[in-house]
Amino acid sequence: MSLGRRIDETARSFWELAGGRSPYGRPVDLERAVATALPLGVVKLPRLSTARVTEALARIGTAQWSIAVDRPLRACLVADVGVGLAFLDGSDPEEEQRYSLAHETAHFLLHYLQPRRRVVEALGPNMKQVLDRVRPPTMAERLSSAMSGLSLEPFRHAMARDAAGVATRVRTESIEGEADDLALELVAPEAERLDFSHLSPDSLASVFGLPTWTGKFLVSVSKESDGVISLFRKKSS
């Protein structure tokens, strides 16, 4: 399946689960839609950083993770046992938070729920016990997953960055690009953007409640791209 079709189908499925786009207005109330459609909670922390996420996870008793060098974040996703938490920088403007949530929702859909579903569909419902680490996979399950090109490893978001916040792995760049593409389609669907093609990039971003820096991507993005933005990055201010 092409990336463009995958993005379209994922966005359409999300809005079907949410009961359609129209009840959420424009700019879209994505946080309310996420609460309706997905097992994904939203946590807003001022001055978000890798250290603050680690501290928050420790307080609620989840599996621990840590990053060698603390750095500021706009957002990040933690997902396990079929549910997730999207951490947002609560001190960001509303427009930034809307895009941040769209980006992390895209990760949850594309890089956590969909791979999980593929494993269960291919190898059976008992694999949920393996994915949730209730039990280790059998040798037969390991072999079957390897032959099917499926991963049984716990979800790990693409946190690897250098000191400047730039992705250090090719796969990290790839999944960030996929999340960027779906994020735009969730908040500012291409079909709706066509109705505002006469607007300037800044005005177009304003219509959909997005930061002005996304405007040039809204007028030029193709869902067959390798990604348009890298939002899951070190904050510049």
Helix content: 40-55%
Write down the domain tally.
Answer: 1
Total strand count, please?
Answer: 3
Name the helix and strand elements from N-terminus to C-terminus, one letter apiece: HHEHEEHHHHHHH
Supply the number of helical segments.
Answer: 10
Radius of gyration: 18 Å
Mean pLDDT over all positions? 85
Shape from CA axes? globular
The neighbouring-strand order within the major sheet is: 1-3-2
Enumerate the spans where pLDDT stays under 50 for 5 or more consecutive residues.
161-170, 222-237
The major β-sheet equals: 3 strands, mixed
Classify the secondary structure makeup into a structural class.
mainly alpha
Beta-strand proportion: 5-15%
> How many angstroms separate the termini?
38 Å
Overall description:
The protein is mostly helical and 237 residues long. It has one domain. The chain is 48% helix and 8% strand. The protein has ten helices and three strands, in the order H-H-E-H-E-E-H-H-H-H-H-H-H. A three-stranded mixed beta sheet has the order 1-3-2, covered by helices on one side. Strand 2 and strand 3 form a beta hairpin. Helix 1 crosses helix 7. It is globular.
